[in-house]
Please model this.
Amino acid sequence: MSGNILILKNHLRKFLRNSKVIGSFTEQADNVFSFRVRGHELQLERMKSGLEMEICVLDEDRYMFLVRIGPFNSTVAARITEVEKIAVLLNTVFHEAKSRFSEETGCVCLETFYDVYDGYPSDGALEKRLEVLIFHSAILADAIACLASGYDAEEAVCHAIAKYTTDTEDGDDNTGNGSDDTDPHDGEITIHFTGGPLW
Model:
């Protein structure tokens, strides 16, 4: 293992340890940190589906945030082609995160990739990148949950986007574009998965 990978891992480990958003984390042997968001049990009630969050060190210069939602209960699993459509549709909306359905795991994955070519990110930048991931995950999870209520993929995506991109009180559109100077909910919006508030 190169020294640069160790430096990057140490940098991310410090962020996870000090973050007020992270409830706990575990380190895997394959350069992966699994973590949970404080104040949320990482369970999607209507789907009875798990939610896993990870930071993965890809090499000495690159890392990624990963959210894995699934596998799904029988109601949603019976409409898995609609789940796949949701992943494709949201890729036309999300600025940073990319969603995809994994046939191998039966889960939908949401990924954001970053590099450190211009230096290691500050804890503040990592916090905002995590907030963007959580924000996009909320939209994805809500859209999938809508399938259990009879929505098709297009209706589910429109419903979820409308729910999470309403205007804030100061008139700013709450879309979360992932830039370091933009907080997707400006400290005023409580982001919800179908199971309850994240914080």
User: Anything to note?
Assistant: The longest strand covers residues 49-57. Strands lie at 22-27, 32-37, 43-44, 49-57, 62-69, 98-102, 107-115, 192-193, 196-197. Residues 123-147 form the longest helix (25 residues). Residues 167-199 have pLDDT under 50 and may be disordered.
